[in-house]
């Protein structure tokens, strides 16, 4: 699971302009602040999970990040046609990841 967040954070770094443009196209305000925050959360949270550092806190931070990000960027309900299926799949994938993070949060002892 850590790899998903690490991959996504690195992707945003490598395609910073594209990620910023996508966020702006979805109606986001303060794009640079939120993009830098997303990169920090994905890389920091992913690394923490991978190395077992404060795994519960990392899982909780990634849950808090993932839910609004999913609602903003994968809102399938207003989309028509083939795009709706893709957004539905992405929405369900992200909610599955949140479920995995909840499992990490519930099972890991301590920090």
Count of beta strands: 0
State the low-pLDDT regions, or none: none
Give the helices and strands as they follow along the chain: HHHHH
Radius of gyration equals 14 Å
Tell me the overall shape: globular
Name the quaternary structure: single chain
Mean pLDDT: 94
Estimate nothing, just give the exact number of structural domains. 1
Structure class: mainly alpha
Give the percentage of residues in beta strands.
under 5%
* Total of helices: 5
How much helical structure, as a percent, in the residues? Answer: over 70%
Report on the biggest sheet: none
Distance between the termini: 18 Å
Which terms would index this structure?
mainly alpha; 111 residues; globular
Overview of this protein structure:
This protein has 111 residues and is mainly α. The protein has one domain. It is 80% helix and 0% strand. The protein has helices at 2-14, 16-25, 31-51, 55-73, 82-107. The longest helix has 26 residues, at 82-107. It is globular, with a radius of gyration of 14 Å. The two termini are 18 Å apart.
What is the topology?
Blueprint: H1 2-14, H2 16-25, H3 31-51, H4 55-73, H5 82-107
Helix pairs in contact: 1-2, 1-3, 3-4, 4-5
